[in-house]
Design a protein that fits this description.
Pfam families: EVE. Keywords: Phosphoprotein. This is Thymocyte nuclear protein 1. InterPro entries: 5hmC_binding, EVE_domain, PUA-like_sf, THYN1-like_EVE. The protein is globular and about 45 Å long. Strands 2-5-4-3-1-6 form a six-stranded mixed beta sheet. It is 20% helix and 32% strand. It has one domain: ph1033 like fold (Roll). A hairpin with a 6-residue loop joins strand 3 and strand 4. By secondary structure, it is an alpha+beta fold. The chain starts with a strand and ends with a helix. The structure holds a DNA duplex.
DNA sequence: GCCAACGTTGGC
DNA sequence: GCCAACGTTGGC
C-alpha cells in the first residue's frame, strides 16, 4: 500500500464536501498535469491512503484522510465541451486523462497547517516543502505519512 | 492581488 | 529539439 497527498481548493471541493457525498465517496476529476496523471494511472491503487490537502484558502494544510476505492478510469469531464476541464485533443477511444474514486475516512480536528508541516524534521522530502510544490497529486512515504498523521490527530 | 516558480506551447 | 513567450499555480 502506498500513501499520497491530493490537493484541492476547498472553495471548490473540501473534505467536508467529500464527507457529505453519497457513500462519502467521490471521483477525483480535473487532473490535467502529466506527472500527476501518471501517478494516478500507474501507481495509485485501491486501498491506498490519501491526505486531503486544502490549498489557496485561509487554512492551508492537510484537512483529512481518504482512501482509494477505485483505480484509474477515464475522466469524463475531458469529453464535455461545457466542462472547464474539456480537452478537445482527447477522445473516448484514446483518453488522455484519468481519475480515481476516493472515500472519506476522517476529518482532522484542526487543519495541519503548511506552516507547521514545514517545521517538522521528518518532512524534508515531501514535495510540499520542496521546490515545485505545484503538483496536485504527490507521493508520501510511510515515515512521512506516520509523522503527518500523528501530528494531525 | 502580487509574484516566483513551474509547465506548456509553438515557431523556427 | 531548442527556447522564448505565455499561462497557471499557490503561498503570502
Amino acid at each position: 500500500m502506498q500513501y499520497w497527498l491530493f490537493k484541492t481548493e476547498p472553495d471548490a471541493f473540501s473534505i467536508d464536501d467529500l464527507a457529505a457525498r453519497p457513500n462519502q465517496t467521490e471521483h477525483w476529476d480535473g487532473i490535467r498535469n502529466y506527472q500527476a496523471r501518471n501517478f494516478l494511472r500507474d501507481e495509485v491503487k485501491q486501498g491506498d491512503k490519501v491526505f486531503i490537502y486544502h490549498s489557496s484558502c485561509k487554512e492551508v494544510g492537510i484537512a483529512g484522510l481518504a482512501e482509494v476505492v477505485k483505480e484509474a478510469y477515464p475522466d469524463h469531464t475531458q469529453f464535455d465541451p461545457e466542462s472547464h476541464y474539456y480537452d478537445p485533443k482527447s477522445s473516448p477511444e484514446n483518453p488522455r486523462w484519468v481519475m480515481v474514486d476516493v472515500t472519506f475516512i476522517e476529518k482532522f480536528p484542526d487543519v495541519l497547517a503548511l506552516k507547521k508541516i514545514k517545521t517538522m524534521p521528518e518532512i524534508s522530502e515531501v514535495g510540499l516543502v520542496k521546490k515545485g510544490h505545484r503538483l496536485s497529486i504527490m507521493p508520501v512515504n510511510e515515515q512521512e505519512f506516520s509523522a503527518l498523521l500523528a501530528a494531525s490527530r
